[in-house]
Amino acid sequence: MALKIRLARSGAKKRPFYRIVVADSRSPRDGRNIERLGTYDPLLDHGDERRVHLDAERIRHWLGQGATPSERVAKFLAAAGIIEPRALREQPKKSAPKAKALERAKAVEEAAAG
């Protein structure tokens, strides 16, 4: 059985609330889970201590059993110091400034310097 530590959505429409659960990777997102390991409330401020709540002891247990965290949960675990942070994925090049924008930025720099 392939185990995943992932988010299961609950809460009302447009008021998301997530449970951090360990589940079989083949089960649906909000389907049956094995154990609840914490919560995540994205509506709270980033500095709020109640935004992410983790049961570190049980998470370490399930990681030892071979469970793999999802990308978002891995960020939470790394922030809590439970696992090492993952390498950032390559960002798309589409959002990089194009040639004309680079020329304009260079012209502004030269005008400011000279």
Describe this structure in words.
It is a single chain. The chain starts with a strand and ends with a helix. The protein has 114 residues and is of the alpha+beta class. The radius of gyration is 20 Å and the shape is elongated. The protein has one domain: 2-Layer Sandwich (S16 Ribosomal Protein, Chain: A). The model has no long low-confidence stretch (mean pLDDT 93). It is 30% helix and 27% strand. The protein has three helices and five strands, in the order E-E-E-E-H-E-H-H.
- The coarse silhouette is elongated
Domains, number: 1
In N-to-C order, the SSE pattern is EEEEHEHH
Largest sheet: 5 strands, mixed
Q: Compute the number of helices.
A: 3
What helical percentage do the residues reach? 25-40%
CATH superfamily: Ribosomal protein S16
Give the mean pLDDT: 93
The count of strands amounts to 5
Structural class, please?
alpha+beta
- Give the CATH class: Alpha Beta
Question: What percentage of the residues does DSSP assign to strands (E)?
Answer: 25-35%
Widest sheet, order of strands: 4-3-2-1-5
